[in-house]
Structure formats: C-alpha cells, structure tokens
Amino acid sequence: MDSERTVSEEAGAAAVQAPAPKKKRIGAVKKRNLLFIWLGLGWSVLHFVVFWLYVNIGTIVSAFQLEDMLGNTTFAGWDNFLNVFQTIAGKNETALMTHYAYTNTLWLLLIGIVVNIPVTLVFSYMIFRRCKAQRIFRVVLYLPAIISPIVLCLVFQGLIDSRTGILAEFLRLIGAGDAIPSGGILGSEDTAWTAILVFSVWTGISGNLIYFISAMSRVPDSLIESAQLDGASEMCIFLRIVMPLVWSTVTTIVIQVISTTFSWYLPSMQLTGGGPNGVTSTIGLIIISNTSTTTGTTYGYVAALSVLVGVIGTAFILGVKWLMERLWREVEY
Amino acid sequence: MKRPVFKAGRALKAKKTFHPGDFAFKLIVYILMTVFAVSFVFVMVWMVLNSFRTSFRFMQDPLNFFDFANWTGDNYVNAFTQEVGANNTTMLGMVLNSVIYIFPPLILQIFIPTIAGYICAKFRFKGKTAIITMVIVSMTVPAVSSTLQTFRLISWMNLYDNFLGIYLMAAGGLGFGFLLYYNYFGGIPWEYAESAQLDGASNLRIFLQIYMPMARPIIVAMFITGLIGRWNDFTTPFLYLPSSPTVANGIQIIFDFSGEDWPLMFASMTFTCVVSLVLYALFSKQITESMSAGGLKA
Questions:
Q1: For residue A309, which of B147, B132, B153, B169 has the smallest C-alpha distance?
Q2: Is A17 contained in some domain?
C-alpha cells in the first residue's frame, strides 16, 4: 500500500483507472458504475438532505417564527434572538433560561480546554513513557470512558449526598458537619455549580486518553532517544518533540471537546435539574430539556438558541482550529 | 551544554542526565494520576460493596462498607423484578429494550457508511467534491443545534416513541464513519478491482468480497465503540423512547421511582457497569489494535 500519497490523489488515480480497458464496453461500464454509485449513495444523500440540511434550515426558519399553543406560527423577526440576548444580559430569566446557562457553558469550555485536555495529555505522556504501574493506570484512568455517564452522575450524587454520602459523613467525622449547606451541596446556590465543575474535571479524562496514547506511540523512538542522548529533560522531550508531533490529534480532540460542551447537559439535569434557581443550567440543558416538551413561545427561543449555537459554535471551532494550526507551525518538520 | 561522551555498546539508559525539574514534574503528575485512579477504583468498590447492603443498614451507618454479616442479594433481585416507569418495565425488560436499541442501528451504521465511503473513495462522478465538503462542514457544526428540529421531524413522521425512528436516524451514511472509510479505502489500491473486473465481477461483488473485508479493522472498531456507546447512551432513548427505556435510562427511572434507596441504585448501577466492563474487556485488544493500525486516527 502506498501510504505516502494523499487520499485525494489516491482516489483520483483510482477513478481514472476505474473504467474497463475494452473500448466497446466503456458506455455499458459507465452506466453500470453510475447505477452502482447512485444506488449506493442515493440513500445516504437523501438521509443527509433530510436529517441535516432540511433540519438545519427548519431550525433557522423556526428561529424567526413565533408559535402559539395550537402550533400556528407567525413571523417574529429578530424577537427570538433578542430574547436570547436578553437572558444572557440577565433579564427576563425563566426556569432554565438564565444567564447562568451561558456563563456555565463558558466555564465548561474553559475547563475542558485549559484543565481536562492538558491533564489528559500529561497522563497519556506518562503512560506512553512507561511510568510505574502504567498498565494499571491505562485501564483505570480509562474507566470513565467505559462506564455510562448516567452511572457516573448517580454515583457522584451518592458520594456527595448530604445524608448518606461519604463526603458528608467524613465532614461530620472531623467535626465540620456545619460546612454542609442546609439544602445539601447540590441544593445550595453557592455550592451546586462548583460541585458540578468538580464532577466535570473528575470525569474529564474520558476516552481521549487512548487517542493521545495511540498518537504518541506513533512518534519514532529514535527521536526521543537522540534527544535523551543530547541531555534533554523529560519535560523538554514532552514539549518540544512529542507535543508538536501529536499536535494534529490534540487539535482534533479540542474541537471535539468544544462541540460536545455545547450539548453538555446530563450532569446538570441529573444532579440538580438545572436548579436551584437555574444556577446550574447550561445551553445544552436548555435545548435538550425543551426539545420534547416545547410548545408555544419557548419553541422560537430554543430554535434561536440552536441557530446561535450552530453559528457561534462553528465560528469558535474554526477559530480555535486556525489558532492551533499556527501555534506550533515552526516546530513541524 | 556539556555533551556526554559515550562508549559503543553501553546501554542508552545509563547516559540519561538527571534533571531536577523532571523529578518535580513526574512527581506531581504521578500524584495526580494516583488521585484520579484511586478515586475511580474507590468509588467503584464503594458502589459494589454497598449494593449488597440493606437500605436500612446503609442509612444507619453509611461508612460501614464491610458489613459482611448482613450482606444480601435482595437489591439485585429487586432491581430485576420491580416494575418502574410509565410502562411498568423491569430491568429485564430494559435489557431487552437495550438489545433492540443497540443492534439493528449498529448493523445499519456499519454497512451504509462503508458503501458510501467506498464509492466516494473509488469512483469519479459529479457532485463528489460537494458531498465530501458537506460532510466535513456538517461535522464542524455542533450537533446539539439540530436536536430540536430533528425531534419535530421524527414526531411529524409519527416515529416518536418508536424504535423505527431510532433506526431511521441511525441509517445515515454521511457522518464520522463515512470519513473513516473514505480515508481507508482511499489508501487501498484499485488493482484488486481491475483484475476482478476482467473476471467479470460486478461492482457490488467487488465491494462485498474484496474491499469490505479489507476494512475489517475499522468495521470491528466501529462495531465495538458503537456497541459500548449505545449501551451507555442516555440522550437518544431519553428523547425518543419514553415508554421503552433502555438500561441507561432505566436506572435513572429506578432512581426517581425508588427515592433515596441507594443500595438498590447501586445494584442497578453495578449491573450496568459490569456489562460495560465485560464488553470492554472482551474487545479491548481489538480496540487498541485497530487504533495502532491507524484505523481510528482521531
């Protein structure tokens, strides 16, 4: 297999070779190929048109409409978008639609990029460099990726439950039982979001560990060995040799993390239901929890929010990608 | 910097220079790793040990995990027999729902993107570039932005609360899998097909008998990650299958239903975890292999 050639070249070359050599039969072969192409692709294209194109255009249309309880729609102009911006500014807040939803999502983005990914990277590096007990770490640190997110949420909830949870018991044991808020850690406005952030860091290593390790294992041993011969420190090898070479994987994972952060809702829904008073709401929670129940005026709001997430989220992702591709350019070779 | 001088044949390790910064770096990371690892293991052990205790004993003395004298399997029996939710589903019913939820879409997700990726990698036709561009663009837009309208569409098709709706949504060929197969088939030469064509093989046969078997590493990887992912998936069944909860949804329903009966919850959660872990243990070798083979380049 000639892996040096790029995919598009390969595909192009293959396509040129595709028609059968006999001149007389070219027409028939072409027809047969076309039939195969469109039988094989037709369904996928149709599916894409309906479940991506139509759905997204529909969201944009709905974002400019106002719907009453009977499902009749009227043109609403930019009203729905204005409502979203008003909530961001802290006005007209209802239930889950609070300004916290937006600041919380920003928090999650920040922590995902600044804490979770670097932590996962250094962990992967340690395992890649065969630290002590690396086999055990490889399995145990991967656990949050294998176990269902809902189980992780529930078990965390059990841990910090104010009556029977370990944390509360421990605090009582050392005589600091008063530190537990009266409504429980998740029931208090002061502590609920912090607890959820702790949860997001705790489970933040996730499956990316395996991606990073497998990307690092493609770094040639000779590079690392020669750096060691030159007396390079471990940190230097990590930052100057391994990181630039796995940078494209890091970029992909960062983009993936950003994309999933916008739909991040389950911990908030399970642990606090977005409460108390909407302080633990997120953008994902607004969209998901309104999806199956929404009728009437909230529909336009959620549609406008979806459009904003689509547009701003995509712009943000492209911006981060652009930035990251330039950050380590000079070291690439 | 002073360069160490080496004698031929000496072990490389001996020449490593000592860096105090390294020691601190390693120590800190090591402590962090241990904290994470220990917390995961501890939580799992805590969950399993308490799943064998009665609710009463647990409420009385939550910290006494090693209460072996009063151990009971009742929580597991209850988890599997008690009927919860709007449709009185037992855990056994949820397992059945999970199976119905997991396998048909998994098969669709394997075959449809394979053929789409193969065609785009190996044939030249009008609109190919447009398709590939659209797929890449669609991957950049956060998926949550289309949730609302997809739900409306499925409801409009009368497929809400119906497994067929799930299957229909999963039957797309132009997603992440498509790009994997497209890249993979792009790297396999076309010569195999030419010789088969001379023997009179049809396009479909060339695909099914020559190229698809070659994509086995990716197919296996997609199957396994899909299997574990679907077993753990909460969102899709939560939104689209309210009256046929899968296990992942079911344990949440059991939680709402049982109130604060943590030991019962722990039993249900332990069961869910055991299935995930067994699936992972069975297939972990294939997952690692297919990744190191370059199949899943993230």
A1: B147
A2: no
